[in-house]
Specification:
Layout lengths: L1 H14 L5 E9 L2 E2 L5 E5 L6 E4 L5 E6 L3 E9 L2 E9 L4 E2 L2 E6 L2 E6 L1
Parallel strand pairs: 1-8, 1-9
Antiparallel strand pairs: 1-2, 1-5, 3-4, 3-6, 6-7, 9-10
Length: 110
């Protein structure tokens, strides 16, 4: 009986990520991708934040189980830039350019 319960619990735990939506895209500064390891965080109201980092091509992928309006925040060169994004049932792509204006970075969607 315990074995059956164990396998049911494991099945539910493994299936949970399948219900999470993915936010992904690229981050660029000028004409080149940001370096590997730039921190990207997605925060949805009333829920914990979800964090990821960029790879060597400036690509990020974050699984967000919540649906609706969220905030994507990027930590780059000691500064923070953010933009509004939406999480849906399906994967959603958000490509951004990091633009430096008056000494501060902002995100502009491509």
């Amino acid at each position: 009986m315990r074995t059956i319960l164990f396998f049911r619990v494991m099945l539910v735990m493994l299936a949970a990520p399948a219900f999470a939506a993915q936010l992904y895209g690229t981050l660029r500064e000028g004409d080149r991708p940001v370096p590997q390891g730039v921190q990207v965080t997605v925060s949805c109201p009333g829920n914990p934040s979800h964090t990821g980092t960029t790879d060597a091509s400036g690509v990020y992928r974050i699984y967000v189980p919540e649906k609706g309006r969220c905030t994507l925040q990027v930590q780059y060169n000691g500064q923070s830039a953010s933009a509004e994004v939406y999480s849906f049932d399906d994967a959603t792509k958000y490509d951004f350019d990091l633009i430096q204006q008056k000494g501060f970075y902002t995100l502009r969607r491509r």
